[in-house]
Amino acid sequence: MYSAQVCLERIRIMQKKKGFRYVSTMLRDADIPVSTIDNIKQGKRPSIDRIMELADYFDCSIDYLVGRTDNPDMNRK
């Protein structure tokens, strides 16, 4: 089941792995609106397209970002 809190934590983990200090800087680099994080913080579910963009940018699985697995590489080819 989707958890906004888990999703935010996973984004922060991947942000640090990418070497970004601030989420906003990382999102600008990924060409993803900063409002995405604000919406998740408010409990809104991001669109599947946005989750796919984040997963592609972080080179991790969608399941990892939404908390369905603890393995960021699961099902990645």
Concise synopsis of the structure shown:
By secondary structure, the chain is mainly α. Helix content is 58%, strand content 0%. InterPro entries: Cro/C1-type_HTH, Lambda_DNA-bd_dom_sf.
**Helical amount:** 55-70%
CATH class category: Mainly Alpha
Strand pairing plus helix content: what structural class?
A: mainly alpha
- The overall strand count is 0
**Segments where pLDDT lies below 50 for 5+ residues?**
none
- Could you tell me how far the N terminus lies from the C terminus, measured between alpha carbons in angstroms? 24 Å
Q: What string gives the helices and strands in order?
A: HHHHH
InterPro entries: Cro/C1-type_HTH (IPR001387), Lambda_DNA-bd_dom_sf (IPR010982)
GO molecular function, one term: DNA binding
Pfam families: HTH_26
Organism: Congzhengia minquanensis
Task: Walk me through this protein's architecture.
It is a single chain. The chain is mainly alpha-helical. It has helices at residues 4-18, 23-30, 35-41, 48-58, 62-65. The chain has one domain (4-65): Orthogonal Bundle (434 Repressor (Amino-terminal Domain)). 58% of the residues lie in helices and 0% in strands.
Layout of helices and strands:
Layout: H1 4-18, H2 23-30, H3 35-41, H4 48-58, H5 62-65
Using brief descriptors, characterize the structure shown.
mainly alpha; 77 residues; 5 helices; 434 Repressor (Amino-terminal Domain)
